[in-house]
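Blinded run. Sample ID left blank on purpose so nobody reads anything into the name before looking at the predicted structure. Input follows.
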Amino acid sequence: MGTTAIPSLMIVAGEASGDLHGATLARHLRRLAPAVSLTGMGGPRMAEAGVGLLSDVTRLAVVGSSEAVRRVPALYRAYRQLVSRLKEEPPRALVLIDFPEFNLTLARKAKRLGLPIIYFIPPQVWAWRRGRVRLIARLITCVLVVFSFEVSLYESAGARVRFVGHPLLDRLASPPTRRESRASLGISAEATLVGLLPGSRREEVERLLPEMIGAAVRIRDSRPGVRFVLALAPTVDRVLVNSLLATAPVEVEVAAERTYEVMAASDLLLVASGTATLEAALIGTPMVVCYRVSRVSQLIGRLVLRTPWISLPNIVAGRAVVPELLQDKASGAGLAGEALRLLDSPTALEAQQAAFSEIRTRLGTAGVGERAALSVLEIAGLAAPAPLRATGR
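Blinded prediction complete.
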């Protein structure tokens, strides 16, 4: 295998959450090994962190299997660009972040090229496809897992695995306070605030925001004076959100790229299942989780889902901590019913918050980005400075 004059690493992420975690990893890699060049696929956060992007498909992220078909041409173009770079300028290692269908296909090519492959935040095989664990063990040089219960799963398949903790622990080591966030958003201390987080993908917003608006109307009718604020993800088109809110019979304020402030300021969240649910749990804000996919994706999900829950707080806790409303149950009436039940019960809200404290302890300790970066450099044969190598382990 040839080498480049400047040692490089390739980092590949395909969704907004992967872009976020890839950026955290990239910042630590640049600090620990500033001479190493970083290239790959990701989004604006990774680019800002110093990754030279060959492609950005984060805005193409979709929900469910049937919805992915129309994205295939763009993904294939991105795949060909990455493979071309792997062949022409082989990196010292390939780092994959979630995005399993794409990344495992890329891993097969990298394996044939003899490259070390590191999977940081591997796919949730314990929820969907346990058989894929063996494939990952066969292809991947080392798996850096973010949940402690994943270690035994991968070890049993013969994979080299390390538990580094969840990268959100770094981002939320000092989360914004309720008082600061309310002041920033212009919300009084006495107001009841419900935050709306309809997702980071267009399809999620199209399916969930109308139901969240319907819930907001019912909540307002039951509790006049409640305020609503929508946390707009950077990957979601503001025009789409404005069009859905234009005819809403309730006022919903929009806060762009201020998700953590919305979470911290809110008394309750209506949130799409995904990384945001874990972020909210770490901040300590009670929530109602919802999700909708196409009927085809729903049928496929029923066949392959291996856990009784879909939200990360419930999965990490191992029990039903937050209510989950899926498919037809994720209606305006259903969301409002759960929201009002929680808002009317301080005991229920406190029970969620107590469980969130337990969840935080299960995710490890801060310093995740550095631990992951040190592992990547070690596996790639790129030594970090000796004083730093010992930190964070």
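Unblinding after everyone has recorded impressions. The CA atoms of residues 295 and 327 lie 9 Å apart.
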